[in-house]
Amino acid sequence: MIAYIELYKDGELRQLAAEINDNGAYIDEVKKKFNAGDGNWVWSTQTADEKISDVILEYKIIKESNKSLSSCATLQDTISEWNRRTNNIKMPCEVVAKQVGDLGLFLWELSSIKRNNAIAEQNKQKFYDLLLTQRENFDAFYKDQVPYFKADANSLLSDLSDSEIAEIYNSLPAGQFTKGKTEYYNFVQGKIDEYILSQWKKKMQALWLEKTGTKDPVEWSEKYNTPILCMVSEEQRPIARRIFDIIKSSNPSEDDAKAAIEFMNGADFYDRLSDSSERDRLFMELIVGTNSVLLTDVNDIRSKLRAKLLQESPYYWFGSSEVQKYLKSMVDKEYKLRGSEMASQIIDRMDTAQLREYLKRRIDEDAEFGIQILKGEDGK
Fold first, then answer.
1. Are 159 and 267 found together in one domain?
2. Distance from C-alpha of 249 to C-alpha of 4, rounded to nearest angstrom
3. Quick one: which of 316, 318, 321 has its CA closest to 218?
4. Contact of 142 with 149, CB cutoff 8 Å
5. What is the rounded CA–CA span in Å between residue 65 and residue 59?
6. Closest by alpha carbon to 83, among 93, 73, 94, 96?
7. Same domain, 95 and 46
8. 250 lies in which domain range?
9. d(CA 379, CA 299)
10. pLDDT tens digit string along 353-376?
11. Whole-prediction pTM value?
Protein backbone atom coordinates (compact mmCIF):
# COMPACT_ATOMS: atom_id res chain seq x y z
CA MET A 1 0.00 0.00 0.00
CA ILE A 2 2.72 2.48 0.98
CA ALA A 3 4.66 1.80 -2.16
CA TYR A 4 1.50 2.20 -4.24
CA ILE A 5 0.75 5.56 -2.61
CA GLU A 6 4.28 6.72 -3.36
CA LEU A 7 3.84 5.85 -7.03
CA TYR A 8 0.27 7.08 -7.48
CA LYS A 9 0.20 10.23 -9.61
CA ASP A 10 3.95 10.52 -9.34
CA GLY A 11 3.85 10.77 -5.54
CA GLU A 12 1.49 13.77 -5.48
CA LEU A 13 0.12 12.92 -2.04
CA ARG A 14 3.58 12.58 -0.50
CA GLN A 15 4.56 15.93 -2.00
CA LEU A 16 1.41 17.62 -0.66
CA ALA A 17 2.01 16.06 2.75
CA ALA A 18 5.51 17.53 2.82
CA GLU A 19 4.20 20.96 1.83
CA ILE A 20 1.68 21.05 4.68
CA ASN A 21 4.09 19.42 7.17
CA ASP A 22 1.82 16.56 8.19
CA ASN A 23 4.74 14.52 9.60
CA GLY A 24 3.85 11.44 7.59
CA ALA A 25 0.21 11.32 8.66
CA TYR A 26 -0.95 10.92 5.05
CA ILE A 27 -0.49 7.13 5.23
CA ASP A 28 -2.95 6.90 8.12
CA GLU A 29 -5.32 9.29 6.35
CA VAL A 30 -5.49 6.88 3.39
CA LYS A 31 -5.98 3.89 5.69
CA LYS A 32 -8.94 5.66 7.35
CA LYS A 33 -10.67 5.80 3.99
CA PHE A 34 -10.94 2.01 3.83
CA ASN A 35 -13.69 0.17 5.67
CA ALA A 36 -12.80 -1.90 8.73
CA GLY A 37 -13.47 -5.02 6.65
CA ASP A 38 -10.62 -4.03 4.37
CA GLY A 39 -8.10 -4.52 7.15
CA ASN A 40 -6.23 -7.22 5.32
CA TRP A 41 -5.67 -4.78 2.45
CA VAL A 42 -7.66 -6.80 0.00
CA TRP A 43 -8.55 -3.99 -2.37
CA SER A 44 -8.83 -3.28 -6.03
CA THR A 45 -6.69 -0.74 -7.81
CA GLN A 46 -9.79 1.32 -8.56
CA THR A 47 -10.75 1.43 -4.89
CA ALA A 48 -7.24 2.40 -3.85
CA ASP A 49 -7.11 5.13 -6.48
CA GLU A 50 -10.40 6.57 -5.21
CA LYS A 51 -9.28 6.59 -1.59
CA ILE A 52 -5.91 8.12 -2.32
CA SER A 53 -7.56 10.72 -4.57
CA ASP A 54 -9.91 11.60 -1.73
CA VAL A 55 -6.96 12.33 0.55
CA ILE A 56 -5.18 14.24 -2.21
CA LEU A 57 -8.24 16.46 -2.58
CA GLU A 58 -8.36 17.08 1.16
CA TYR A 59 -4.66 17.93 1.22
CA LYS A 60 -5.16 20.32 -1.67
CA ILE A 61 -7.89 22.03 0.34
CA ILE A 62 -5.54 22.26 3.31
CA LYS A 63 -2.67 23.61 1.20
CA GLU A 64 -4.76 26.25 -0.56
CA SER A 65 -6.50 27.27 2.66
CA ASN A 66 -3.16 27.75 4.39
CA LYS A 67 -2.50 30.67 2.07
CA SER A 68 -5.18 32.60 3.97
CA LEU A 69 -5.41 30.83 7.33
CA SER A 70 -3.03 29.85 10.09
CA SER A 71 -1.06 26.86 8.84
CA CYS A 72 -2.92 23.56 9.31
CA ALA A 73 -1.90 19.95 8.74
CA THR A 74 -5.32 18.27 8.96
CA LEU A 75 -8.63 18.86 7.28
CA GLN A 76 -10.42 19.20 10.62
CA ASP A 77 -7.99 21.89 11.74
CA THR A 78 -8.60 23.67 8.44
CA ILE A 79 -12.35 23.49 8.98
CA SER A 80 -11.91 24.91 12.49
CA GLU A 81 -9.84 27.77 11.12
CA TRP A 82 -12.43 28.58 8.46
CA ASN A 83 -15.13 28.49 11.15
CA ARG A 84 -13.08 30.83 13.31
CA ARG A 85 -12.68 33.18 10.34
CA THR A 86 -16.38 33.20 9.42
CA ASN A 87 -17.31 33.62 13.08
CA ASN A 88 -15.73 37.06 12.80
CA ILE A 89 -18.00 38.07 9.93
CA LYS A 90 -20.61 40.17 11.69
CA MET A 91 -23.29 39.78 9.03
CA PRO A 92 -25.39 36.75 8.03
CA CYS A 93 -24.22 34.86 4.97
CA GLU A 94 -27.50 35.57 3.16
CA VAL A 95 -26.98 39.31 3.69
CA VAL A 96 -23.42 39.34 2.36
CA ALA A 97 -23.77 36.79 -0.43
CA LYS A 98 -26.18 38.91 -2.45
CA GLN A 99 -23.65 41.78 -2.57
CA VAL A 100 -20.45 40.00 -3.58
CA GLY A 101 -21.14 38.23 -6.87
CA ASP A 102 -19.32 34.92 -7.36
CA LEU A 103 -17.82 35.15 -3.88
CA GLY A 104 -21.34 34.52 -2.61
CA LEU A 105 -21.13 30.85 -3.70
CA PHE A 106 -17.99 30.40 -1.64
CA LEU A 107 -19.63 32.11 1.36
CA TRP A 108 -22.57 29.70 1.18
CA GLU A 109 -20.13 26.78 1.27
CA LEU A 110 -18.43 28.32 4.29
CA SER A 111 -21.83 28.78 5.92
CA SER A 112 -22.58 25.07 5.44
CA ILE A 113 -19.19 24.17 6.91
CA LYS A 114 -19.86 26.44 9.87
CA ARG A 115 -23.24 24.86 10.59
CA ASN A 116 -22.04 21.27 10.20
CA ASN A 117 -18.41 21.61 11.32
CA ALA A 118 -17.54 19.48 8.31
CA ILE A 119 -17.25 19.53 4.53
CA ALA A 120 -19.72 17.09 3.01
CA GLU A 121 -17.98 14.48 0.85
CA GLN A 122 -20.02 15.45 -2.20
CA ASN A 123 -19.06 19.11 -1.74
CA LYS A 124 -15.30 18.81 -1.32
CA GLN A 125 -14.45 19.22 -5.01
CA LYS A 126 -16.86 22.14 -5.32
CA PHE A 127 -15.35 23.77 -2.24
CA TYR A 128 -11.83 23.31 -3.60
CA ASP A 129 -12.75 24.78 -6.99
CA LEU A 130 -14.31 27.81 -5.29
CA LEU A 131 -11.33 28.07 -2.99
CA LEU A 132 -9.04 28.38 -6.00
CA THR A 133 -11.08 31.14 -7.61
CA GLN A 134 -12.48 33.01 -4.59
CA ARG A 135 -9.93 32.75 -1.79
CA GLU A 136 -8.28 36.08 -2.59
CA ASN A 137 -11.69 37.73 -3.03
CA PHE A 138 -12.66 36.40 0.39
CA ASP A 139 -9.50 37.80 1.95
CA ALA A 140 -10.21 41.24 0.49
CA PHE A 141 -13.79 41.14 1.77
CA TYR A 142 -12.76 39.83 5.18
CA LYS A 143 -10.29 42.67 5.74
CA ASP A 144 -12.84 45.37 4.89
CA GLN A 145 -16.36 44.30 5.86
CA VAL A 146 -17.77 47.68 6.90
CA PRO A 147 -18.71 48.92 3.39
CA TYR A 148 -20.90 45.84 2.92
CA PHE A 149 -22.53 46.43 6.30
CA LYS A 150 -23.16 50.05 5.39
CA ALA A 151 -24.63 49.17 2.00
CA ASP A 152 -26.93 46.52 3.40
CA ALA A 153 -28.11 48.28 6.57
CA ASN A 154 -28.20 51.77 5.05
CA SER A 155 -31.85 52.36 5.98
CA LEU A 156 -31.03 51.67 9.62
CA LEU A 157 -27.90 53.82 9.64
CA SER A 158 -29.24 57.16 8.42
CA ASP A 159 -27.62 60.29 9.88
CA LEU A 160 -24.57 58.35 11.07
CA SER A 161 -21.07 59.13 9.80
CA ASP A 162 -18.78 56.52 8.28
CA SER A 163 -16.68 56.42 11.45
CA GLU A 164 -19.79 55.92 13.58
CA ILE A 165 -21.01 53.12 11.30
CA ALA A 166 -17.62 51.43 11.60
CA GLU A 167 -17.75 51.79 15.38
CA ILE A 168 -21.18 50.16 15.49
CA TYR A 169 -20.11 47.31 13.22
CA ASN A 170 -16.96 46.64 15.21
CA SER A 171 -18.99 46.55 18.42
CA LEU A 172 -21.24 43.77 17.13
CA PRO A 173 -20.47 40.39 18.69
CA ALA A 174 -19.04 37.50 16.68
CA GLY A 175 -21.29 34.70 15.52
CA GLN A 176 -23.61 36.52 13.13
CA PHE A 177 -22.66 34.60 9.98
CA THR A 178 -25.21 31.79 10.34
CA LYS A 179 -28.05 33.92 11.74
CA GLY A 180 -31.26 34.64 9.84
CA LYS A 181 -31.51 38.15 8.45
CA THR A 182 -34.72 39.10 10.33
CA GLU A 183 -33.19 38.21 13.66
CA TYR A 184 -30.03 40.00 12.63
CA TYR A 185 -31.72 43.25 11.55
CA ASN A 186 -33.67 43.43 14.82
CA PHE A 187 -30.45 42.88 16.73
CA VAL A 188 -28.60 45.53 14.74
CA GLN A 189 -31.41 48.06 15.24
CA GLY A 190 -31.13 47.55 18.99
CA LYS A 191 -27.37 48.08 18.85
CA ILE A 192 -27.82 51.26 16.79
CA ASP A 193 -30.32 52.60 19.33
CA GLU A 194 -27.87 51.83 22.13
CA TYR A 195 -25.07 53.53 20.25
CA ILE A 196 -27.03 56.71 19.57
CA LEU A 197 -28.08 56.86 23.20
CA SER A 198 -24.49 56.33 24.33
CA GLN A 199 -23.35 59.16 22.06
CA TRP A 200 -25.73 61.59 23.74
CA LYS A 201 -24.53 60.33 27.09
CA LYS A 202 -20.90 60.81 26.01
CA LYS A 203 -21.65 64.36 24.81
CA MET A 204 -23.34 65.15 28.10
CA GLN A 205 -20.49 63.70 30.17
CA ALA A 206 -17.85 65.42 28.03
CA LEU A 207 -19.56 68.80 28.49
CA TRP A 208 -19.77 68.34 32.27
CA LEU A 209 -16.09 67.38 32.37
CA GLU A 210 -15.19 70.42 30.29
CA LYS A 211 -17.20 72.74 32.54
CA THR A 212 -16.27 71.33 35.96
CA GLY A 213 -13.19 69.15 35.62
CA THR A 214 -15.07 66.19 37.15
CA LYS A 215 -16.99 63.24 35.72
CA ASP A 216 -20.31 64.06 37.43
CA PRO A 217 -21.90 66.12 40.26
CA VAL A 218 -21.16 63.40 42.81
CA GLU A 219 -17.44 63.49 42.04
CA TRP A 220 -17.41 67.30 42.17
CA SER A 221 -19.09 67.22 45.60
CA GLU A 222 -16.62 64.63 46.87
CA LYS A 223 -13.64 66.52 45.48
CA TYR A 224 -14.58 69.71 47.35
CA ASN A 225 -16.49 68.14 50.28
CA THR A 226 -19.38 70.40 49.40
CA PRO A 227 -22.83 69.49 48.06
CA ILE A 228 -22.94 70.97 44.59
CA LEU A 229 -26.56 72.03 45.12
CA CYS A 230 -25.19 74.68 47.52
CA MET A 231 -23.62 76.39 44.54
CA VAL A 232 -26.90 76.80 42.65
CA SER A 233 -29.32 79.66 43.27
CA GLU A 234 -32.45 78.80 45.20
CA GLU A 235 -34.76 79.33 42.23
CA GLN A 236 -32.60 77.08 40.03
CA ARG A 237 -32.15 74.37 42.64
CA PRO A 238 -35.20 72.17 41.77
CA ILE A 239 -34.29 71.87 38.08
CA ALA A 240 -30.58 71.57 38.93
CA ARG A 241 -31.34 68.64 41.22
CA ARG A 242 -33.15 66.86 38.38
CA ILE A 243 -30.37 67.62 35.90
CA PHE A 244 -27.65 66.47 38.28
CA ASP A 245 -29.50 63.18 38.73
CA ILE A 246 -29.51 62.78 34.93
CA ILE A 247 -25.79 63.54 34.62
CA LYS A 248 -24.85 60.96 37.23
CA SER A 249 -27.27 58.38 35.82
CA SER A 250 -25.77 55.28 34.22
CA ASN A 251 -28.47 55.11 31.55
CA PRO A 252 -30.11 58.46 30.77
CA SER A 253 -32.62 58.69 27.95
CA GLU A 254 -31.79 60.70 24.84
CA ASP A 255 -34.30 63.41 25.82
CA ASP A 256 -32.84 63.63 29.34
CA ALA A 257 -29.29 63.87 28.00
CA LYS A 258 -30.35 66.66 25.64
CA ALA A 259 -32.07 68.48 28.52
CA ALA A 260 -28.92 68.20 30.62
CA ILE A 261 -26.78 69.59 27.81
CA GLU A 262 -29.15 72.51 27.34
CA PHE A 263 -29.10 73.24 31.08
CA MET A 264 -25.31 73.10 31.27
CA ASN A 265 -24.90 75.42 28.30
CA GLY A 266 -27.12 78.00 29.99
CA ALA A 267 -25.91 77.61 33.58
CA ASP A 268 -24.24 80.53 35.35
CA PHE A 269 -22.71 78.84 38.40
CA TYR A 270 -19.37 77.71 36.97
CA ASP A 271 -17.43 80.68 38.36
CA ARG A 272 -18.78 79.88 41.83
CA LEU A 273 -17.77 76.25 41.46
CA SER A 274 -14.14 77.23 40.91
CA ASP A 275 -14.07 79.89 43.67
CA SER A 276 -12.93 78.39 46.98
CA SER A 277 -14.18 81.35 49.02
CA GLU A 278 -17.64 80.96 47.49
CA ARG A 279 -17.62 77.24 48.19
CA ASP A 280 -16.75 77.93 51.84
CA ARG A 281 -19.28 80.75 52.19
CA LEU A 282 -22.18 78.79 50.74
CA PHE A 283 -21.27 75.66 52.69
CA MET A 284 -21.35 77.60 55.96
CA GLU A 285 -24.55 79.39 54.99
CA LEU A 286 -26.56 76.46 53.65
CA ILE A 287 -25.16 73.44 55.46
CA VAL A 288 -23.83 74.71 58.80
CA GLY A 289 -26.38 77.51 59.09
CA THR A 290 -26.79 79.11 62.55
CA ASN A 291 -24.44 76.52 63.97
CA SER A 292 -21.66 78.61 62.43
CA VAL A 293 -21.78 80.82 65.61
CA LEU A 294 -19.77 78.09 67.32
CA LEU A 295 -18.62 75.94 64.37
CA THR A 296 -16.27 78.27 62.53
CA ASP A 297 -13.60 76.10 60.90
CA VAL A 298 -15.17 75.10 57.60
CA ASN A 299 -12.55 72.49 56.64
CA ASP A 300 -12.63 70.93 60.09
CA ILE A 301 -16.41 70.60 59.78
CA ARG A 302 -16.06 68.98 56.36
CA SER A 303 -13.43 66.53 57.59
CA LYS A 304 -15.53 65.49 60.58
CA LEU A 305 -18.62 65.00 58.42
CA ARG A 306 -16.66 62.82 55.98
CA ALA A 307 -15.27 60.74 58.85
CA LYS A 308 -18.65 60.35 60.53
CA LEU A 309 -20.83 59.81 57.45
CA LEU A 310 -18.73 57.25 55.61
CA GLN A 311 -21.68 55.83 53.69
CA GLU A 312 -23.06 59.19 52.56
CA SER A 313 -21.40 61.12 49.75
CA PRO A 314 -21.11 64.90 50.23
CA TYR A 315 -23.41 65.18 47.21
CA TYR A 316 -26.28 64.11 49.50
CA TRP A 317 -25.43 66.40 52.45
CA PHE A 318 -27.77 69.14 51.21
CA GLY A 319 -30.99 68.71 53.21
CA SER A 320 -29.64 65.62 54.99
CA SER A 321 -31.16 64.99 58.44
CA GLU A 322 -28.08 62.94 59.37
CA VAL A 323 -25.83 65.89 58.60
CA GLN A 324 -27.96 68.23 60.70
CA LYS A 325 -28.10 65.71 63.54
CA TYR A 326 -24.33 65.44 63.61
CA LEU A 327 -23.85 69.22 63.34
CA LYS A 328 -26.15 69.61 66.36
CA SER A 329 -24.04 67.18 68.36
CA MET A 330 -20.94 69.12 67.35
CA VAL A 331 -22.44 72.46 68.36
CA ASP A 332 -23.75 71.05 71.67
CA LYS A 333 -20.23 69.92 72.48
CA GLU A 334 -18.80 73.32 71.57
CA TYR A 335 -21.47 75.04 73.65
CA LYS A 336 -20.51 73.02 76.71
CA LEU A 337 -16.80 73.61 76.15
CA ARG A 338 -16.88 77.34 75.46
CA GLY A 339 -20.23 78.56 74.20
CA SER A 340 -21.90 78.81 77.58
CA GLU A 341 -19.06 80.88 78.99
CA MET A 342 -19.02 83.11 75.91
CA ALA A 343 -22.78 83.75 76.26
CA SER A 344 -22.37 84.56 79.96
CA GLN A 345 -19.62 87.02 79.18
CA ILE A 346 -21.84 88.77 76.66
CA ILE A 347 -24.64 89.01 79.23
CA ASP A 348 -22.24 90.42 81.76
CA ARG A 349 -21.23 93.15 79.36
CA MET A 350 -24.83 94.26 78.72
CA ASP A 351 -26.28 97.21 80.64
CA THR A 352 -29.79 96.96 82.07
CA ALA A 353 -31.52 98.56 79.06
CA GLN A 354 -29.72 96.25 76.59
CA LEU A 355 -30.55 93.22 78.65
CA ARG A 356 -34.23 94.14 78.88
CA GLU A 357 -34.38 94.80 75.15
CA TYR A 358 -32.72 91.44 74.44
CA LEU A 359 -35.12 89.59 76.74
CA LYS A 360 -38.17 91.25 75.16
CA ARG A 361 -36.95 90.30 71.69
CA ARG A 362 -36.42 86.73 72.82
CA ILE A 363 -39.92 86.64 74.30
CA ASP A 364 -41.39 87.86 70.98
CA GLU A 365 -39.42 85.39 68.89
CA ASP A 366 -39.24 82.32 71.13
CA ALA A 367 -42.47 81.08 72.69
CA GLU A 368 -40.66 78.40 74.70
CA PHE A 369 -38.39 81.02 76.23
CA GLY A 370 -41.42 83.19 77.07
CA ILE A 371 -43.13 80.23 78.75
CA GLN A 372 -40.05 79.67 80.88
CA ILE A 373 -40.28 83.36 81.97
CA LEU A 374 -43.94 82.85 82.89
CA LYS A 375 -43.06 79.75 84.88
CA GLY A 376 -40.46 81.73 86.77
CA GLU A 377 -42.99 84.49 87.57
CA ASP A 378 -45.41 81.91 88.97
CA GLY A 379 -42.64 80.40 91.03
CA LYS A 380 -43.01 77.07 89.30
1. no
2. 75
3. 316
4. no
5. 10
6. 93
7. no
8. 203-338
9. 46
10. 887 888 888 788 877 777 777 776
11. 0.64
